[in-house]
């Protein structure tokens, strides 16, 4: 009888997983190391609350890319906004820092490092001629908790960040007394791990973390010296983020094995440094070892533009989110306002109607496409014409818009920095291809477009392995085209200067 009940539960969970969350989640549900699936109510979560979270995010936040909620070790809801998908990686930006912290903890556990080791001791050849007293006492602990003593952050770009530039930065404060969010400090942790292990952080974590968790094919960008960037550059899938959070929720245990020492988990996620006093800000609750403390007793790793691994010990829950947002606090507010109240300490009664409604919504999530007409009288006049731009900082040399079929799709052709690239933009849908995000090589992208006026075509290009979307507004006037383009998010200005092209 118990065997039959167990088999019935397995069949139920498989059916729920496959029906629940659409084609995108079939990959996650059948992956060899996938987290087990369950229904929200079976794990004490209201389907109505989750639906409210998703609908509010879709309506008020531009834009979430993926979402996964784990309760009591089971995935109870997951969804991807097309063209984002379960089996594609997403750039994590500073969420990478929490993985680097884990590598440091493992290196310490293996006797290769100590929290009290001085930073200078690892880089004698890169030290300034006369290191300051504060630099001499900077330790690994200070790197971990962002209290290096710097007033200004050293360079962090991949072509500049290195031990020499870091150690050359003035250290006006005594290490341990001054919080400064410091991505270069995390790079130094990565460089130190590589020094003592002979492996990049990526390679060091492969057999110790990535493989046991089932994190397949993670990529991690390196600096010009071949050192993993540490503070950013890691790309993994949404469920990989959730598994990492679940590992920390389980105090470093995974399938009965202690992957990360429990003492490290407790220390790394505890309040190590004060970083503010605003009770309503999740950036003022204290900082651990490359983890942020949150309100409601939670902690998290997070990255620029809304990449989150939120661990909620009091609720025995993990929330993984990828996104491309300007207001990161708004996303966390939504978690506290919508999801948190829906988590109960006991199993809830079945609510099949709410579960079905949630399943349908999660299976049909789509990133917003440009609103407008499928065609325009102007299209026949400009289709196939090449518009050439004068030299510009964007390296955009020419643009061409070709009419598509009756579905309203159009082909956008550009020449950027000497390279030709084209992508089909669907109307009211996303068409996947490749497209340059700037002057560099083409990346995985999806295009959608519409005529917002008779003379204006708007193409939205989603680089779906990143947080970025580029919107091109092309206004055709006689022999000219006016190009106004804007990114959804950026580390600097999102709006790019207008370019004017001439038909040739």
Key descriptive features of the protein:
504 residues, alpha+beta, Beta-lactamase, Lipocalin, 3 domains, six-stranded antiparallel beta sheet, globular
Please give the structural blueprint.
Layout: H1 2-20, H2 22-30, H3 47-60, E1 64-71, E2 74-80, E3 90-91, H4 96-109, H5 133-136, H6 140-144, H7 163-168, H8 183-197, H9 201-213, E4 219-220, E5 234-236, H10 238-249, E6 253-254, E7 257-258, H11 262-268, E8 292-293, E9 299-303, E10 307-312, E11 317-323, H12 328-339, H13 352-363, H14 379-382, E12 386-388, E13 396-403, E14 410-416, E15 419-426, E16 431-436, E17 442-453, E18 456-462, E19 469-477, E20 480-487, E21 499-503
Parallel strand pairs: 15-17
Antiparallel strand pairs: 1-2, 1-11, 3-5, 4-5, 6-7, 8-9, 9-10, 10-11, 12-13, 12-21, 13-14, 14-15, 16-17, 17-18, 18-19, 19-20, 20-21
Helix fraction bin: 25-40%
CATH class of the largest domain: Alpha Beta
**Biggest β-sheet, characterized?**
9 strands, mixed, barrel
Computed structural class: alpha+beta
Q: Within the CATH hierarchy, at the fold level, what is the topology of the largest domain?
A: Beta-lactamase
What is the end-to-end distance? 78 Å
Low-confidence stretches: 1-31
Give the tally of structural domains.
Answer: 3
Describe the structure.
- This protein has 14 helices and 21 strands.
- The chain has 504 residues and is α+β, with helices and mostly antiparallel strands.
- The chain folds into three domains: 1-88 and 237-368, 3-Layer(aba) Sandwich (Beta-lactamase), CATH 3.40.710; 91-233, DD-peptidase/beta-lactamase superfamily (Beta-lactamase, 3-Layer(aba) Sandwich); 379-503, Beta Barrel (Lipocalin).
- Strand 16 and strand 17 (442-453) form a beta hairpin.
- The protein is globular and about 70 Å long.
- The chain starts with a helix and ends with a strand.
